[in-house]
Amino acid sequence: MLTYIVIAAIKSLVLIHILLGAVAYTVWLERKVVGRMQNRWGPTRVGPFGLLQPIADGVKFILKEDLTPPHVYKPLFILAPLLSVVLALTSIAVIPLGGQLPLGRWSTGLQVTAAPNGTSDINIALLILLGVTSIAVYGIALAGWSSNNKYSLLGSLRASAQMISYELSLGLSLVGVLLLAGSLSLRDIVTAQGRPYEFKHFLWLPHWFPHWYIFPQLIGFFIYLVSAYAETNRIPFDLPEAETELVAGYHTEYSAMKFAMFFMAEYANMFTVACVATLLFFGGWSGPIPGFLPPLAKALMPLFWFALKVLVFIFVYIWVRGTLPRFRYDQLMAFGWKFLLPLAIANLVITSLIVAVLS
Amino acid sequence: MLHLILFFIFAAVCIAGAVNLLAQSHPINSALSLIVVMGSLAVLYLLLGAEFVAAIQIIIYAGAVMVLFIFVIMLLNAGVEEHSGKSYIAWFVGIPSLAALAGLVVYSLLLHEEQTGNTSVSSISNVGSVQAIAHLLFGKFLLPFEVTSVLILIAIMGAVVLAKRGES
Known about the structure:
Largest sheet of chain A: 2 strands, antiparallel
Oligomer: heterodimer
Radius of gyration of chain B: 20 Å
Shape of chain B: globular
Shape of chain A: globular
Number of strands of chain A: 2
């Protein structure tokens, strides 16, 4: 029991550092890619290709004066960014990054919450993810309220309404995959995507064709992607921080590290969304492993495939940011309640009918 | 052993949150204490092996219901409430009945100690799994489950009607 806790703690420590490093370089990637899309260079001054820019940004955030305006409600003003970043980092704990990682004589599951034998994990991982997502709204809501500023308050009211509206279609969009896989455990869902489809007799597929759930659940994937963008408050759903209307929305009054915490939370949430999309719709860490590689490289190949798929999603995030304008608020609400939610319910009904007929 | 330690920690957090809920004078602090109570209850369910109920407790109560509470408090901009401390009902009815209730609970627990004390986590851990709950909900309790969903639908429609009536 004690060894298990120690191993889980070491894994969390490593994972948090990798995640925060990835977050820093996602900011760099975003600035570079959006820069190229708008025919600019992006950061170039610090290091080759501006590669040291995230470090410079980090130093700046740490050294800046941490202002606390006099009119804020202090306990919640400090609690809100902490809550945001802690919840954003919590959800990575249940995400499996690969099968087993052999380290000399013994091996360990590539997941913080993997069972000691490494082949199974907690069977409510997806529910935990949804739970953490639903709690994450408090960070933003409390930040806006405790700032005692009308722009902040408007931003956080928008955020709360938006996040509880899109949470419904987010949850419903995943149920289709759960019906196909028959499990709530993320590991089981990835394993299930290694099996051929139930309806393989009805259409001809080459044997190398990946049996990912994106193909039977294309509508579910579309709904998931849209509602996940809304949940992470990214363009085109970044109304809580719409800078043309609300200064900076809920984080108007925050500076230095407290602001950086909101920033880190947003990007860490993007990673969680990308990981879940990879696991549920794109076969997780599965991918071809060339036979000529040395054993260690072979063992690391699943991690490579997982990271590559996640990176593709991060790129799509940035791509969408560089392409789409922001919704108007009534459009956002109408889209969520009158289009996405009925579509998600229809997808659920059709999927369950097909599953019931085929089984 | 670990279960027992975690139980005492989160039971203490739960009670502390509940007391804080009453002691705080600002509605938003009270609402946040209620979230702490919900969260620690979820951990207690998890310790009992009811993992699905624990996750739903977080998603529904801490994530959806309490967000609406906070939302309303933020919208109304509810201020600090003053404790009057003058309620005679609280002194002469509330506290004695609280003591009586606590005594009753302790008495009944002690009376059936050999039954309640020996229930181990492992023997009931299958009750709370997703499959077990689904079998109960869609098998034995199908009718109450469906009737409840109709009830919720009626409540939603009632809310829509009330909201639309004010508009016209």
